[in-house]
């Protein structure tokens, strides 16, 4: 039994070491959380305050409620029978933040300007 446990621990340590310490590499080595930040990206802020989180969720839920009640007139959205309210998800926010930190900028030539 100790041998099996030792092999399991060694296997885990080796896989984490091989992936550069990123536990999400087991899903894909290209996982957003495994990518380094883009050093050419000058982020002005990398956090969202609790007040901002509450405002983001409130505004999003207000729009969802408008659709759910049939008050949304653009896009022909049907009423919703049981639309749930959204809540802040810190894990999803962390992935989104990491995605923003790895952003790539392209030079886009504006035509006609």
Automatic annotation (TrEMBL):
CDD domains: CAP_euk (cd05380)
Record keywords, A-Z: Signal
Membrane-crossing segments per the record: none
Pfam (any one): CAP
Residue span, SCP domain: 58-104
Signal sequence extent: 1-19
Name recorded for this polypeptide: U25-Liphistoxin-Lm1i_1
Biological classification of the source: Eukaryota, Metazoa, Ecdysozoa, Arthropoda, Chelicerata
